[in-house]
Amino acid sequence: MSLSMPDFTKPESKRLDLRRILAAPGVAAILTILGTVALWELAARTLNIPSYLLPAPSAIFSTFPSIGAERWVGHVWATLRVALLGFALAIAIAIPLAIALVRSPALNRTLYPLLVIVQSTPVVAIAPIIIVVLGAGDAPRIVITTLICFFPLVVSTATGLAATPPELIELSRSLRAPAFREITQIRLPFAVPYIFSALKISVTLAVIGAVVAEFCASDAGVGYFIQFSTSMFKLPQAWAGLFVLAGMSLALFQAVSWAQKLLFPWSLPRKR
Amino acid sequence: MQTPAAIRFDHLGQVFDTGSGRVEALRNVSFEVARHEFLAVLGPSGCGKSTLLRMIAGLLEPTSGAVEVFGRRVDGPREDIGIVFQKPTLLPWATIEDNVMFPVRHKRGRVGSHDRDRAQELLRMVGLEGFGKRLPDELSGGMQQRVGIARALHMDPDILLMDEPFSALDALTREEMGFDLLRIFSERPKTVVFITHSVSEAALLADRVLVMTGRPGSVLTELPVPVARPRGRETIKDPAVTELAAHLRDLLLQRDAA
């Protein structure tokens, strides 16, 4: 038997091409999602699952046009606004707080246990109380969102601020530089990777916070829409809301990743 | 009147209070460094060599005795001292040029065109001309340490403290850096305290070698390096240097065996 090269290489190279396509970024993920949806559709149709237990994807997607773009945008904006404002407030509180914790050992000893207690309290349980105290409107929802998403930010930022090379802190001290520059020029930039990994967690927590707040009291938002749909027994509609929420979380997570790539490219692990 | 020594240690002792008890790091350390003298400090690990540097810089207060710099007792951080650390510890987000100017920006909050010119001049001196706009992680370890040296020299300090600056480099780069230091200090003399583990490095670079004992660290002996400057590549092969290096090695080994 002779080794006829073309016979072996042709199918081999084709298979290699397919492998290369599968290895391309996102391709595997998209195929997995499409496959899951297809299986789901198949199961729903062949097994005759009642739609209140598990609606078929086609039934879920058909609710999108029937709700209408205007209502969707209204709900999404209501949730997004609260999530982003709560997230922003969490950043505004967490970063100065982390700086204070790192600067002052006394504050670290007194304030940190308090923070742990606040974090250990299920925010979902105090949400109704907050709504009674702060009344209707965005304010209580923003506070609930902030409470849910600020803790990882404080801990991560404080860890990052403390992880600065001690040599640079000695350099700063030997220069008799003002203390605030030690924070702005050394500690904070060194904390950027830590801050961003916390921001990615926090931004998805912010969506959860906004939805929890809507569950307690609201007349708009995707969380409210899901609750309203289930109470009307419109399960495919509720599932559609769930998909929208998942999409929102994903988009916000991506936005934070892009912000890091754009603003602090040096803080990302090096590609070699 | 005699001019005061650049650095003077006067019966200095240091005891650290650690969680598990008191550790005596230095005992009765006395020595002087003249202006523009290059002193190498040699000793086993944990003999308090780095502690000595921190005291000169005013970052650490001695438990007993005193350190004087230019005749004045050190009682806090002083600005006329540059420090080169074991690791380059550059700012990964700042360009090489900005890293060199960092002490000025950190101290004053801004930099002028004069500081930029000086950074360029220093980068040329350490052999990194044209690398000013690069980021630290684009440079090799040896190049990064050159940036660390340029940074320490930017404020034109009278005294340069070097804490095992080449210990993280490979042998060849390390030798190369030694020759560069000889050239840099012949152009611009400084008072240097150079901590090292390498006997040949100490013999090549220094005017005088201070040998320390293990914990608690104290001065075992001081040896002059009997080789004239300027020195260069051929200095390594100078019998006086190799003899001194061998002698220093014996001293350290004897001490280890005892």
From TrEMBL, chain B:
Record keywords: ATP-binding, Nucleotide-binding, Transport
Coiled-coil annotated spans: none
Annotated ABC transporter domain ranges read 7-239
State the SUPFAM superfamilies in the record. Answer: P-loop containing nucleoside triphosphate hydrolases
* CDD domains in the cross-refs: ABC_NrtD_SsuB_transporters (cd03293)
The molecular function terms in GO held by this entry are:
ATP binding
**InterPro entries (alphabetical):** AAA+_ATPase, ABC_transporter-like_ATP-bd, ABC_transporter-like_CS, ABC_transporter_ATP-bind, P-loop_NTPase
Q: Which residues cross the membrane?
A: none
Similarity comment text for this entry: Belongs to the ABC transporter superfamily.
Q: What is this protein called?
A: ABC transporter ATP-binding protein
Task: Please report the organism this UniProt entry assigns to the protein.
Answer: Salipiger mangrovisoli
